[in-house]
Amino acid sequence: MAKKEDIFYTLLKRVAEEMMQASEEYLEIMKGFPETEARIPRMKVYETTTDELVADIMKRLYTSFITPFEREDISDLALRMDDVVDLMEVVCMRLDLFRIDHMRPEAVEMAELTRKAMIEVQAMIDLLPRYKKDERVMQHAIAVSRIEDGADRVYQNALRRLFSEEEGGKEIVTWLRIFDRMEYCLNACDHVAGVVRSVVMKSA
């Protein structure tokens, strides 16, 4: 009879699934905006579901005598995962708030990189129960960091083109705020992977 999976792993996998679905919606909104504006409220659904799952994890941490790895790391991991979904929602909300009427290609590229990071994060979390024995956990965690490094270059190019092409101050400020949050989102992906990298290294 197979050993039952620890509830913390199960909940973290559910959070990762919400992150993955949110990243797919995020990308579709960016690719089609402004025609996809009506899809923005869907991001709130993912954000709310993730909040509820993370709240469940935190509640269980207070009442569980045994956890699969350090409580602080489980808490940090869950909160970092929640941050990613929060930031994707923030970006989409700003498209509406700032009345964006066209999409810049770098924003789509950064959303695509976020989705790629989520693919790695989900694979990493799916394998997390075997983190002491399966090298792929660390491989996926490192892959997230490489994607984030690539996103930094896209972000820098986005700002360079923004300042060279746009003369109006409002356009520059608006897109600066959006690009900044998109970069924060990708950084948050790497923070998730960073917690896992730390957990693996502690067990080495």
Q: How would you concisely characterize the structure shown here?
A:
The chain is mainly alpha-helical and 204 residues long. It has 6 helices and no strands.
Question: Care to describe what's here?
Answer:
- With 204 residues, the protein is mostly helical.
- It has one domain: Methane Monooxygenase Hydroxylase, Chain G, domain 1, CATH 1.20.58.220.
- It has helices at 7-32, 41-63, 71-97, 105-127, 136-165, 169-203.
- α1 (7-32) packs antiparallel against α4, α3 packs antiparallel against α6 (169-203) and α4 runs parallel beside α6.
- The longest helix is centred in the last third of the chain and has 35 residues, at 169-203.
- The radius of gyration is 18 Å and the shape is elongated.
- The model has no long low-confidence stretch (mean pLDDT 95).
Radius of gyration: 18 Å
Could you give me the name of the CATH homologous superfamily? Phosphate transport system protein phou homolog 2, domain 2
CATH topology: Methane Monooxygenase Hydroxylase, Chain G, domain 1
**SSE string, helices as H and strands as E:** HHHHHH
Q: What percentage of amino acids are in beta strands?
A: under 5%
CATH class bucket: Mainly Alpha
| Classification by helices and strands | mainly alpha
Low-confidence stretches: none
Main β-sheet description: none
How would you sum up the global shape? Answer: elongated
